[in-house]
Design brief:
Pfam families: DDAH_eukar (PF19420). Helices cover about 30% and strands about 20% of the residues.
């Protein structure tokens, strides 16, 4: 069921508090793609205002990415795939590939430079042959669906929150709802300046919500989302949002990873709330990678077994 009306969503889900028995709230493992060939992707820059105009240092990006892998490996098993100069945005794999138990989903990317990523063979083969899961493609003609870029998933409840933008269309919304086997998806418009919901919003292990209200076109939609989480909501300031705090990710039921810039931007009250919700912040410096318009969450593909 896909719902587009805030009142309908609030009545059917926020007031009824659906059970948190749909799945594991945090991933079992993770996959990443090395920033080999890291550079500005001009096609992606057409609708990603977070991208820097110049000054991309590929060697520094590689070093910072290695730090992400090292820190993440202290929490989860991690598999790293190589990047390529043909795919300069590949360091952000969660837009192209996503998983639910027993299934790898391959998205439908808007720009050709990212469509090339979806046709690599090694990553789907590893999921199919090593993990024994089926591989499902949703990149049919007329579909735009950049997976957990526009779609934020409450894995505990089986609920999706899809911010509509240039990176997802109606066909893509329905395709993702079905592919992720969600109980329900709430679809709402983002501001025209926003390209992915995961820059402005995160659900942390089903226990807490991080959200920048002003990035949604309608404040009623923000309230409808927040209603399900009661007091466990962190409303981001403009400064926190600009520093990619909304791109944080719960990599376990206790650990929230975020970039060092996002960690620095956290207001004391936001940090205190995360601690009260039972989370420890795990920052990693990735300011070089952030020049490409994404942050920590964009770099990590979650694996659910």
């Amino acid at each position: 069921m896909v719902i587009r009306d805030a009142r309908h969503w609030t009545h059917d889900f926020a007031q009824r508090s659906p059970a948190t028995d749909w799945g594991k709230p945090a991933p079992d493992a993770a996959f990443l793609v090395s920033p080999i060939g890291f550079a500005k992707a001009l096609e992606s820059a057409q609708d990603n205002v977070y991208m820097a105009d110049s000054g991309y240092d590929a060697e520094r990006a590689l070093a910072q990415h290695a730090d992400v892998v090292r820190v993440l490996q202290s929490i989860l098993p991690v598999h790293v795939f190589p990047g390529s100069p043909e795919t300069p945005d590949a360091v952000f794999p969660n837009n192209v590939f996503a998983s639910v138990p027993g299934r790898l989903i391959i998205g439908a990317m808007k720009h050709p430079v990212r469509q090339r990523e979806s046709h690599r063979h090694d990553l789907p083969a590893w999921f199919r042959d090593d993990l024994g899961v089926e591989v499902v493609r949703i990149d049919a003609p007329g579909v735009v669906a950049e997976l957990t870029g526009p779609l934020i998933i409450d894995r505990a409840r089986g609920l999706g929150y899809c911010g509509m933008s240039e990176r997802v269309n109606e066909a893509g919304l329905l395709a993702m709802h079905d592919a992720f086997r969600l109980r329900a998806t709430f679809a709402f418009p983002l501001l025209p300046t926003e390209y992915h919901t995961n820059v402005v919003m995160s659900v942390l292990a089903g226990r807490a919500l991080v959200l920048h209200r002003a990035s949604l076109a309608n404040s009623d939609d923000a309230d409808a989302i927040a209603a399900l989480y009661g007091d466990a909501v962190i409303w981001l300031s403009d400064e926190e949002k600009a520093a990619f705090v909304g791109n944080c990710l719960a990599v376990s039921d206790r650990h929230v990873m975020l970039s060092a810039a996002a960690d620095t931007a956290l207001r004391p009250q936001s940090r205190a709330k995360l601690a009260a919700f039972g989370f420890t912040c795990v920052p990693v410096a990735i300011d070089e990678i952030e020049k490409a318009g994404g942050s920590l969450r964009c770099c990590i593909g979650e694996i659910y077994r």
